[in-house]
Amino acid sequence: MLRLPLALAALLLRALRSPLSVLRWSLAHVWPRLRLVLGRSGPGPGPTPTSVNYHFTRRCNYKCGFCFHTAKTSFELPLEEARRGLAMLRAAGMEKINFSGGEPFLTDRGEFVGKLVQFCKQELKLPSVSIVSNGSLIRERWFKNYGEYLDILAISCDSFDEEVNALIGRGQGKKSHVENLQKLRKWCQEYGVAFKLNSVINRFNVEEDMNEQIKALNPVRWKVFQCLLIDGENVGENALREAEKFVISDEDFERFLDRHRDISCIVPESNQKMKDSYLILDEYMRFLNCRNGRKEPSKSILDVGVEHAIKFSGFDEEMFLKRGGKYVWSKADMKLEW
Ligand code: SF4
């Protein structure tokens, strides 16, 4: 019983320290707790949503064969509703938001994600705002308008061989994914955004030696994921992909890592580390629980609040910390040596 008043006091304190724009959402979160203290029993608070991945769209212009967030719906929240949800998350303790998809720059030609990035930095004063994108739709004008509000831009790149990219499904027509990468890196440098790379290691790129190209691009972090199967997304009856042929063994993954051991910014994520250590919000702002190998949604935070929905997220806070989920994630704290 002591846990609840203590948690409530902490929440009240946080609310009073929050920027004004967040205050009303903070109070909206204090009230349900207060009701519990005033005589109604119920479970204790869930984990804090310190770092959230918001997949606001499932639509994408690529067709990667292992994609585990496929275009099962084309639903996207109106901008104001998305802002409302983000403010609720901030009030509940969010420090980092990552916008993802689908392809985030597809919605309203990048204006949607640009406005959310600006809102999170300017209004919510979030320490870290980042985007994961395949990079194919980003224009320099976007950096001019919104670059100052973005801490990190992570671009997905699984191979420096265009033929391999084509085999994977990462690409569109004749556009070169690799050439585009150089351009994006240059814009990140010019507009003061930290440049990050994400690679999914799979059957088609597991033998590749990427040392030279990664060193030349010099990202702040290079996240290297082991290809993951999610029932209903990239494997199983209702899935839009058949990713079995992309899967590699733990030993294969280790060999790839060993080949790249001299790259200091590498951050490996095996299936074991990835599993349950991400807080994922889908296009309806529902937490997705992956504990059973498939994505089971909670109710939307917009309907039931963050505190309630997060209890169904399956989030493993300990694994999040163990995989180094908390790092220097604000560009103000990074030494961007461009
Ligand atoms: S770019 Fe990302 S979202 Fe699009 S198909 Fe590939 S993995 Fe899926």
Automatic annotation (TrEMBL):
Keywords in alphabetical order, please.
4Fe-4S, Antiviral defense, Endoplasmic reticulum, Immunity, Innate immunity, Iron, Iron-sulfur, Membrane, Metal-binding, S-adenosyl-L-methionine, Signal
PROSITE patterns with a match to the protein in the record: RADICAL_SAM (PS51918)
Which Pfam family would be a valid example here? Radical_SAM
**Domain Radical SAM core span(s) in chain numbering:** 44-266
Per the UniProt entry, the signal peptide is: 1-17
Q: Quote one Gene Ontology molecular function term.
A: 4 iron, 4 sulfur cluster binding
Give the GO terms filed under biological process for this record. Answer: CD4-positive, alpha-beta T cell differentiation; defense response to virus; innate immune response; negative regulation of protein secretion; negative regulation of viral genome replication; positive regulation of T-helper 2 cell cytokine production; positive regulation of toll-like receptor 7 signaling pathway; positive regulation of toll-like receptor 9 signaling pathway
Which family, according to UniProt? Belongs to the radical SAM superfamily. RSAD2 family.
> What name goes with this protein?
S-adenosylmethionine-dependent nucleotide dehydratase RSAD2
